[in-house]
Amino acid sequence: MADESYPEGLRYHPEHDWARIEGDEATFGITWYAQDALGEVVFYEPPEVGSETIKDQAYAEVESVKAVSDVYAPLSGEITAVNDAVSDSPELVNEDPYGDGWLVRVKLTNPSEVDDLLDVTAYRKLLEDE
Amino acid sequence: MATTALKRTPLYAAHVAAGAKLVPFAGWEMPVSYEGVRQEHVAVRTSCGVFDVSHMGEIETSGPGALDLLQRLLSNDVSKMPVGGAQYSVLCREDGGILDDLFTYRLADDRYLTVTNAANHEKDFAWFADHAGDFDAEVSDAIDRYAMLAVQGPNARGIVAGLASAELPERMHTAVMDVAGAETLVCGTGYTGEDGVELLPPADAATSIWDALLAAGAVPAGLGARDTLRLEVCFHLYGNDMDEQRNPIEAGLGWCCKEATGFIGSDGVAAARESGAEQKLAPFVLTAAGIPRQGNAIVSRDSEVGVVTSGTLSPCMDVGIGMGYVAAELTEPGTELEIDVRGKRRPARIESKPLYRKESE
């Protein structure tokens, strides 16, 4: 499992999801805290390319041996790519949650939503309060 | 959330030291895993794991009428158990509904120790105490007297033997001996499908035994692995796979019910055995991707025919496995069904027990 980290350049959703924003596109995944709480991820089925994500709503599930966890969309958009490597090797989410363990890539439909997300300082503050 | 404080076993500090992830379980703060459920599971299948199961309760029954009392309470034929023996049974309500499933050890001619599930301990003890008045027997709550460690896996006996003052009891037998210097009840039982023993030392000796087991190569294993191990070999979990609404015949536990002894609930069990169960507990595997979970519907030809009571991903077979109550006519091994996993139908097949078998077998 990876060491605890929360990269500076990402934006965070309070449900422990991250977004890496590049223009009007973004990549989503779950944070170190989320994968640690869940334990070893053993199952993930990616959503369909072309389907929609709606901010604050679940777009996928990740499962450990013990539990199922919804994955929430930090932003609204249309899914343009999914990480099939994670369905083959779900442990990538534990080993590299911000890199090889990314989940989907989306074209944003409402980029102004980014303003609602937390920066790393605010997200760390939220974790301290949990 | 309950506001009452969670109870801690004598090994709480040892769990923290071992890096456990602790969770509430049946009123106790228990380790669900240390390094990871899968690693711990594999350690038990290939080497040796040690579980703290001190949350489980013990009831001691003693006196000239102890056998008669237990014969009235427990479903199995307690008179068949020799001194130093162990026996599995269920505790039934008057109508045959299952109150708990229990292991009982015969410690002496007129002294028995019954191990209860943590969530049922108080209910069970009250049930024992309520019925003891009719017999020349005494029941005492022994939960604070004992810690309980399950040492399981192909290397378990070797590791415990190295710490023990006498030869270990065989499977389904029990004996008292020193383990790491403390007088311990050693039982040839377990809940993993592997060889091994369960140790019941005095509570204050638990940590020294735990440390000695780890030093000898046992891997700490949590409740997560305990659950996946037992499900691979189709051992029942009370509260999931049976409860007061189910009788032992439906649950596939008719083998430990000897109605001729006249135990409480025997009439209900006899009637269920006579009429046959409408639903039966059956093990299954998913034949494609997915993980079945407790509460998922079991579906056949688009109609609901049952419910999943336990489900997980099998760490040894790497497929979704489970058990559930299914219409009796659909419990034949090989029957194809579907499991409705949160809206997605996953193909499944009924299998025979156990789901996991060692390759050498």
Task: List strands and helices in order, with pairings.
The complex is a heterodimer of chains A (130) and B (361).
Chain A (H helix, E strand, L loop, with lengths): L10 E3 L3 E6 L2 E6 L1 H7 L2 E4 L7 E2 L4 E7 L3 E5 L4 E6 L1 H5 L3 H4 L8 E5 L11 H10 L1
Antiparallel strand pairs in A: 1-2, 2-3, 3-9, 4-6, 5-8, 6-7, 8-9
Chain B lengths: L11 H6 L3 E5 L2 E6 L3 H10 L2 E4 L4 E6 L3 H8 L12 E7 L5 E11 L2 E6 L4 H12 L5 E4 L7 E4 L3 H6 L12 E6 L2 E6 L8 E5 L5 H10 L3 E2 L2 H10 L33 H10 L3 E8 L10 E4 L2 E11 L6 E8 L8 E6 L2 E7 L11
Parallel strand pairs in B: 3-13
Antiparallel strand pairs in B: 1-2, 3-9, 4-7, 4-8, 5-6, 6-7, 9-12, 10-11, 11-12, 14-17, 14-19, 15-16, 15-18, 16-17, 18-19
Helix pairs in contact in B: 2-7
Q: Roughly what percent helix of chain B?
A: 10-25%
- Secondary structure category of chain B: alpha+beta
Tally of separate helices of chain B: 8
Oligomeric form = heterodimer
Which architecture of one domain in chain B does the CATH hierarchy give at level 2? 2-Layer Sandwich
What radius of gyration of chain A results from the CA coordinates?
A: 13 Å
Total beta-strand segments of chain B:
19
User: What is the CATH C-level name of one domain in chain B?
Assistant: Alpha Beta
Strand content of chain A: 25-35%
Distance between the termini of chain B: 46 Å
Distance between the termini of chain A: 22 Å
H/E element string of chain B? Answer: HEEHEEHEEEHEEHEEEHEHHEEEEEE
Strand content of chain B: 25-35%
Q: In order across it, which strands form the biggest sheet of chain B?
A: 10-11-12-9-3-13
* Number of discrete helical segments of chain A: 4
Q: Name the average pLDDT of chain A.
A: 96
Task: Sketch the major β-sheet of chain A.
Answer: 6 strands, antiparallel
Described by the principal axes of the CA atoms, the overall outline of chain B is: globular
